[in-house]
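Researcher: Here's the sequence for the chain we discussed earlier.
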Amino acid sequence: MKKTFFSFLLLIFTLSAFAQEYTITGNVTSEQDGLPIPTVNIIVKNTSNGVTTDFDGNYSINNVPQNATLVFSYVGYTTKEVVVTNGNPINVALSEDVEALEEVIVIGYGSQKRKEVTGAVSVVSSQTLDEIKPIKVEQALQGTVSGVNVTTQGGAPGAGLDIRIRGISTNGANGPLVIIDGYQGSLDILNPNDIDTITVLKDAQAAIYGTVGANGVVLITTKSGRKNQAPKVSFNSYTGFQETTRELPLLNATEYALLLNEAYAAGGQNLPYPNVSGLGEGTDWQGEVFNNNVPIINHDFSVSGGSEKITYAISGSHLYQQGIIAPKKTDFRRNTARLALGADISDKINVKANVIYTYLDRDAINDSGLGSVLFNAINTPATLSAFDDNGNFTLVPSTPGLGIEIINPLAQIDNTFNDYDLRKLNGTVALEYDVLKNVKLTSRIGFNTSNSEGKSFAKQVDYGGKVFDVPRSSVSQNAINDNNYSLDIFGTYNNTFADAHKIDFTVGTTVFKEFGNGLFATGYDVPNNSWEFADIALAEGISEARDVGSYAYDERRLSFFSRLQYDYKGKYLFSAMLRRDLSTKFGPNNRVAYFPSVTAGWVVSDETFLENSNTLSFLKLRASYGILGNDQIPSNGFASLLSGEATYVFDGALVNGQALGVLANPDLQWEEAKKFDVGLDLRLLNDKLDITADYFVNTRDNLLISNISTSGITGTSAPGSGSPTVNAGKVENKGIELAINYKDQLSDNLNFSINYNVTSLQNEVLEVNNSTGFLEGGGFGVGQPAPSRMEVGQPIGYFYGLQTDGIFQNQAEVDAHPSQSALGATAAPGDIRYVDANGDGVINFDDRTNIGDPIPDVTMGLNLSLNYKNFDFVLYTFASLGNDMVRNYERTLSDANKLNYVLDRWTGEGTSNTVPRVTTGATSNNVFSEFFVEDASFVRIQNLQLGYSLPDEFINKLGISKLRIYTAVNNLYTFTKYKGYDPGASSGAPIGGGIDAGFYPIPRTYILGLNLNF
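Model: Thanks. This is the structure I predict for it:
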């Protein structure tokens, strides 16, 4: 009996011991450098109980039984298991798993170990995206990736951005190919918090994409769940307010009136303001149109996890941003929802699916160019009030001095009505089948389908005889449907022979089709002249001109590709790629093209003479050369279309009809990008210092050139007709890239990392074989020749105008100088003195030459990250040096307002040698010249962020694994001598992109945010 009793007590004690549970806390660091590792997965083995480490590597996990096993896992590190024997803290140092760490580089149709990559490849992590907090994904590449320059088309909500990888190479489309989880997509549709990594392929490594890879490739990998990961819930939110970063120093009312009096007196006219004493400051038109404390809000959440055979990730986001000009009429909404699933159907078959739904809603004003709101705010005199005595908008007089373009910007805002909505569904479904031990077959379908609707209302309005008067109200609507899909089927064979020879061979095919249609219509006489009734169904008025239109398109590509990767003992690396593309964008003579490339590398640090180095831990030399294509051209250039106009005689009467448009070129073909790169990857000081350097030469051949000389009998001068487009241009970009990263643990509580990257670029046009030898683009003022050119021996898009040589100080200098009357007026003291560039003794438009280059000579990024205890701090900066910009936001009419630099004008001999006199008389001072070209170099503090993570002992009681609050300032300050709003803006056009007609400034944004993980 006693024996039974004691046995029972022993059983109870044993069961209670096993039933005892603990809350385990600790810290996870890297064994290599001691730095904390965030987002490490920690799970109680064979259960779903798990957590992840916070930003500082700390964790706390509840309900852990005694003798249970904790599994610590993180991509790039060896998984570690620790048995729990008591409730003491468990600190773990994970060792790098070289094999796993180097698998993170996505290279297109597969991945490759970082050590084995032989191309110029850069990666931006999700941590960087989290630190920058970009509204649009493209912004995360500015200053973080060498060789990449991102320019904005304006600071308005939803405005476009342009990515240029290693310069501008063509007079056509220069944007990179974007691949999202294997399918061709667009960055506009993405929530930045859904992205795991951004990989940029800059050289011949991108040749696997053939005819669409010439401008570089941006590969997006979105976040997914991980196997054996407990459910992880993440919620991120921030709210903030925006303001303009800059207001131009315009003349106030008194300064304006005094200057105008001087100009009228110099022109022999009566003074417009005989008494200026009561004018004061006048109206600050910029203050009237700019708004402060303009809101921006962003929320997103995600749930991810996985079991032995299934992974999942679900996320949603909402972004709302108002504009700093006309907040209620310029706003941007982006809502996204994403589902990513992965399942092991069997030991050999895996299925993955990723679907993204995006809704965009954008309202806009005329925010750039002549006639924009800012253009009017800059040029409207400060002597005019915003409203008249009756509370109506003041009319800007239609006088010779103010012209017929300048209107009250507040009235312009009030009379602007439009709306744009986009709904897009895109994604991919893939199946991977392990056919044999070393053979994998992948089949993947990617798709994009979008429907957009746009509507704009032109209210009947009278601005007092201006070109913007609307005598008859109208509403214009459009409905557009765009679709594409791709089918990829490819197989991969990999094997290692004799423990030294490793081979990876990929072969496959891709079918890509894009198709869609658009419908446009305009209705007149909108009921009640009101936006509420602006609809085609209600606007029953008709017009003599055709008020409906439509289009449809259908383009396809059929591609075959192969890639062989070989390495010997991991030291000698070689890769060769070949792609064959067939595209319906080209005629039967040139529909097929081949794109080969080779890359090679040598891991010098694995050689015996360096294996014992105490300083150098890794050194790789690499080189690449390949040919890629660019088919981003208008469709059907090889065929003749009925897009011209003609007059025919039927039954003795003239009848308007259609005729052949632009002449066809059946030999049209895609552009070719010949890319050469040599580089090195270097790690020093126990991998604390990481250096990457590249020298590249990119030559773009077969550029599409218009204005080809043809016989007059072909009818190219007829309405709607034109000369054919021919492959007849060549551009070269060459430069050096350098990226340096250093990270260190200074103490148990303090660590930091610093990144510096710099790119130098030289651009030169090598060939333009048309009838003139150049292409023109852009615009300056009204009625002047195009100010930008593409010409042999010059950088693409350089500024073409007159050189200046100061100001004429007296009549003797005027008499001694070649005549400038051919420019439209005889020179006088106080006028700009132009250079006789061709030495023919006469100043005319033949003396125009290179007076500026919009392409920066050097771009740089300097980024700093600090962590001290629970505090974290980041700083991102970007610099662009050597780029010029044309000041084109000033109307040259005598009565328009001016920037205050005109206060330093010439008023007599010796008073100024930089700013000409003011007068209402005829001068040539407004002819496009160096006077309007400025150095637009700048250094910008892009992002400043300070965060604090609440202690684990506090938040764990609430069931929270991470709670971080932060404050940030985006676009904090720009250091520049440029007079305009934004020295980094561009229209995106390769020829004429650097001409500033009043770019909407990027707002400064103050943010308060929260990161919450469960």
